[in-house]
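ok trying this again, last paste got cut off
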Amino acid sequence: MIAVTSAMVVPSLSSVSQGSVGDEAKRLRLVMSFALEEAQLSGMPLRWLASQDGWRFESWVETKKGTSWQPFSEPPLEPYQLPDGVVISNVEQAGSFSFEALMKQNSDKKVDVRDEQAAVIGMALLLPDGTTSQSNVTLTDETQTETSVVLIRPGPAGIRLKKAEEL
């Protein structure tokens, strides 16, 4: 199933041109949808970390030293750098849900909780049961004349772009 999903999503990611805020918002929506499917199919939680100039995905994995977040390095979930002129200006989150705190409560194993770098401005959790943490991700150009918002919602609302009349 992963191969079939990848075959459908990965070509569509390369067809999204780089440059405009709208194009980058579409790219983020597609990649987030793929990551949510990956979390469901693999049974492993994923998290998306945003900085002003891009994003990265990490998977929650068990190692000999305990459990920790491990970054993806392969397409389409490898770290992504936004093109010049496009930034993530805000990640508005619906709460302060901490996956690390949940794992500490539910596990006797050692948990590696790494301090996040100051560059991280927000995150979203993508869980194996198909739910996500709720976030609004705002992408803008440097002059803030063009804006797109990607809505990340748990359940049937899913991951979608905010309509222009909603802005």
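PB: full thing came through this time. The mean pLDDT is 81.
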